[in-house]
Amino acid sequence: MFKCIVTAVFVAAGFLAGPVLGQTSGAVVTKTPGVAHAMRTEKASATITAIDAKTRVVTLKGPQGKEFEVEAGPEVKNFAQLKVGDQVDVRYSEALLLELKKGGGAPVAMTAKGGAVTAKKGAAPGAAVGRQVNVVGDVIDVDAATRTVTVRGPKRTVALQVEDPEQFKLIAKGDQIEATYTEALAVSVVPKAKKK
Fold first, then answer.
1. Domain locations in the chain?
2. Residue 166 CB-half CA count within 13 A
3. Among positive and negative, which fits the CA dihedral 120, 121, 124, 125?
């Protein structure tokens, strides 16, 4: 499972690195008193230009003509179905939710969960991986002069700059901040259209 996620992360890094593939993206930020939510989605596509079946290296070319190689590890099912000319589509989403917990009281902790789904035997190659991390930390200091909040979590202490003065006014020493980070990556292969 971990190796599959690592492979997916490297594939995503290749796809979503700058203008290599001509990506599209969108971001949304919302807030209400004591709650802030940010979400971002990236999409990218490339065409398979070469396949080395022995090394399982696939060469991909983006819409702007840049090429790069990706190694498809043994966890990539249905590798033999990949063909030169197929299109590879990647969609990456991440979200961060911050919630103020007045008065605290919850255990300071971090939890993480994740999962992966791969293509079934005989189906078009593809995979999806995701994970969610939840952290609860104690507000141990509030500095009005710099609008900085110091939060002690289960593994470290961080100083956070709060840009919104109305949100900053709501936070007091002894409160807690709960952060939930979610990310998901989906990769699909669209076979090259057959000539008629």
1. 2-190
2. 6
3. positive
